[in-house]
Amino acid sequence: GNVTYENAPELKELLEYTPKDRLLLETDAPYLAPLEHKGQVCRPELIAVTASFLQDTYKLDLAILLENTLRVFPQLHKVLD
Question: How far is CA 16 from the centre of its chain?
Fold first, then answer.
């Protein structure tokens, strides 16, 4: 969630240079909730807020994130089927 913070320019710069087929999202739960939840305990489901931020701000196709996640964690196919 820390990529949603204004004081994270280095992360945002890395995001712009990272090949999209190499991106994964992770949660820092219970720390570093996304900006709109700052000060709250970060819960794993808040990763959706970070994903929405990336989609809205960087026009990132969330399907790419799903493909990347399933490539790295193929056992998740069973959960999604």
Answer: 14
Calculate the alpha carbon distances from 20 to 25, 49, 55 in Å: 12, 19, 12
Pair of tokens at residue 41: 């305990």
Task: Give the pLDDT confidence score for residue 39 in this predicted structure.
Answer: 92
pTM: 0.86
Cα 76 from chain centroid? 17
| Average pLDDT per 10 consecutive residues for the chain, totaling 81 residues | 93 92 91 93 94 94 94 88 74
Residue 12, both tokens:
């945002």
Among residues 28, 20, 21, the alpha carbon closest in space to that of 1 is found at 28
